Amino acid sequence: MQPKTLALIDDDAEYSEFLTQFLQEQGVTVSRFDDSNALLAAPEAFSFDFYLVDLMLPGVNGVELIKILRRRTDAGIVVVSGRLGPEVFREVITAGADMYLVKPVQFEQVSLAIAAVQRRVAKPSAAEAAWKLDRASGELIVPDGTRIQLSEADRQLLECFAAAGGEPVTREALLNKLGREVPDGEADDGLSATIYRLRRRIERATPTLVPLQSKSRVGYVFRAPLQLI
């Protein structure tokens, strides 16, 4: 089983190019990043189905990148790096990686590792339990039982996501729900900041993975059941 989309974060251009070709021949859509900051700046940074991460990277180092990814996504993460030693293995696994491969490694081995991890992450889990939006109290109820008080803008956004039933919601639809004008061209509509504040509000209240993610060139999606009560 292979993921549909994969982010390859590695500054070795030749290695990345040939590994990308190998994985694409297996039907995987690969996006390459030679700098961890470039990945984090991408609109779809936390929306990939899988991540292959080197440890020695420009920008945020590989271990810190894994910690950031694990905070925002439960996607598979495999480290492929030339760094050796039991302390390195302990560090990356503790940070949240699923598997650690040491370079040089055959592309077929990388593919097998991806498939093994993907079988695990693709299984239904408790993380897929329903979130609930209590309109009477203005609270979001996390599957772990945490209740989060919402602003009016937060509530409006979550009502949109609940109505979408797990499908992406366009920026235009979200702005209309908030009663804001849709700007022309590249003008800042403030939506990204509003989404960021909502996500941070949830992250501060619970360790449960926040299923709110950006959808490149579309808008945003709430990747978990969300019920109105």
From TrEMBL:
UniProt cross-references to PROSITE patterns, sorted A to Z: OMPR_PHOB, RESPONSE_REGULATORY
DNA-binding region: 123-224
Keywords: DNA-binding, Phosphoprotein, Transcription, Transcription regulation, Two-component regulatory system
Chain ranges of the Response regulatory domain: 5-118
KW Transmembrane (keyword) present: no
SMART domains listed in its UniProt record: REC, Trans_reg_C
Keyword Transport: no
Domain of life assignment: Bacteria
Annotated InterPro entries: CheY-like_superfamily (IPR011006), OmpR/PhoB-type_DNA-bd (IPR001867), Sig_transdc_resp-reg_C-effctor (IPR016032), Sig_transdc_resp-reg_receiver (IPR001789), WalR-like (IPR039420), WH-like_DNA-bd_sf (IPR036388)
Pfam family, one: Response_reg
Domain OmpR/PhoB-type intervals: 123-224
Modification 4-aspartylphosphate, positions: D54
Entries under CDD domains matching the protein: REC, trans_reg_C
Protein name: Response regulator transcription factor
